[in-house]
Amino acid sequence: PTPVPDRTAPEWRALDAAHHLHPFTDHKALTEQGCRIITRAEGVWLWDSEGTRILDGMAGLWCVNVGYGRRELADAAARQMAELPYYTQFFRTATPPTIELARRLADLTPRGLSHAFFTNSGSEANETAIRMVRHYWALEGQPARTVIIGRDNGYHGSTVAAAAMSGMKAMHRQGGGPVPDFEHIRDPHRFRNGPDQSPEAFGRTAAGWLEEAIQAIGPGRVAAFIGEPIQGVGGLIVPPPGYWAEIQRICANHGILLIADEVTCGFGRTGHWFGSQTFDIRPDIMTLAKGLSSGYMPIAAVMVGQRVARTLIELGGEFAHGFTSSGHPTACAVALENISILDREGLVERVREDVGPYLMERLEGLSGHPLVGEVRGRGLMAGVELVRDKAGPGVFRPVGRVGTHCRDLCFKANAIIRAVGDTMVMAPPLIITRAEIDTLVDTLSRALDQTK
Ligand code: PLP
């Protein structure tokens, strides 16, 4: 007997409504509309329980970088499960796939990130980073350095502290309570926050908001700054030229730790292994998840640079932090095989040199559409910001919630494109072909024509 019985789509929907609370979901609306039951997948394609094929323009949730149906990953999991499914990394024990993955990540990530701390999700990786940087400063004899500065519309997870560190106001209101010592600066979204400035001037302005915040809080109280190289979930915000170099300079100037949240940007998405390489960021700490296993297993990691690692190891004693599944050997075996696939098949270069530029070129073709305010992106991470009223070049007035309507039209037409606010977001598997990109962009284009 299989553990999952064969049921019809209406049966699944009824059981789902009766028993399943979905993440980030309005359940009343879901029950009214009914959800689609996804039963299998191959390449960039999903199939629902009614046999309809759907183009996954989001790689699941920005994670299935090597695409669906990879036998090698199933085999890696099966081999490891047969040999040693689980053992803990607590109590002076370790498992070979875990050690090997830590070594591989230390090689792959930018210079100096020498140690990996494993978790199960991106939220947990960022929670870990929060505790780690505060612990670091206490060990360094500066316990007043507790404040972490993030950005409006930054997303770092939905656990209590990761949500507080995120810049999503709606999340702060829901059950998080006021959490002290998290501050936010405005995001570097020129389209909204500085449309009258040149990209270079706006890069300086937006980085200057960090300096202002540090001065307002007091430099001796700031532990770290955290940012996604490209803000994904918060609206596909691509930093203006010079922004990251200036952020880096400001952090160095005040001795503040720089955390790069690479949960969406990592593992080839922006055309380099990490977004930090695309924007020449040299973080002290880097958080990874999603593409680390292409979503085949829940696994995430905090990469720790030598500055922090040395203090933790030399002065820290026991860091009382971790999870039962930290460094889970089966998840690590799958992540190792996933990295091998990305490497072996040259998928990162493919994004940078072929399909990334092609996606951007095709999307640029939509710029003339009356609803399209701005097209932006890097690699296979792209956004099309919609506006109601395009008054003239450079004069846009973004209003309304046209994005959700456009998203629903795409979904009906069997393509998954996300709407964050009024920005249509795409992050397909890195194996997507030019022909599949054509299908994705043509579907978006037809949906835009019907969007109200
Ligand atoms: N950080 C970023 C940049 C993300 O986009 C996400 C999830 O979308 C997270 C952290 C949280 O990761 P998880 O959902 O695995 O907890």
Bound molecules: pyridoxal-5'-phosphate
Describe the main β-sheet briefly.
7 strands, mixed
* First-to-last CA distance: 49 Å
Give the C-alpha Rg: 22 Å
CATH topology of the largest domain: Aspartate Aminotransferase, domain 2
CATH architecture label of the largest domain: 3-Layer(aba) Sandwich
Tally the helices: what do you get?
Answer: 17
Q: Which ranges are low-confidence, i.e. pLDDT below 50, for 5 or more consecutive residues?
A: 392-398
Descriptive account of the structure:
With 452 residues, the chain is α/β, with parallel strands linked by helices. The protein folds into two domains: 36-66 and 346-450, Aspartate Aminotransferase, domain 1, CATH 3.90.1150; 72-344, Type I PLP-dependent aspartate aminotransferase-like (Major domain) (Aspartate Aminotransferase, domain 2, 3-Layer(aba) Sandwich), CATH 3.40.640. The chain has 17 helices and 17 strands. Strands 4-10-9-8-7-5-6 form a seven-stranded mixed β-sheet, sandwiched between helices. The chain has a four-stranded mixed β-sheet with strand order 1-2-3-15. The radius of gyration is 22 Å and the shape is globular. It starts with 8 loop residues before the first helix and ends with a helix. 49% of the residues are buried. Mean pLDDT is 95; it is low at 392-398. The protein binds pyridoxal-5'-phosphate. InterPro entries: Aminotrans_3, Aminotrans_3_PPA_site, PyrdxlP-dep_Trfase, PyrdxlP-dep_Trfase_major, PyrdxlP-dep_Trfase_small. Pfam families: Aminotran_3. Belongs to the class-III pyridoxal-phosphate-dependent aminotransferase family.
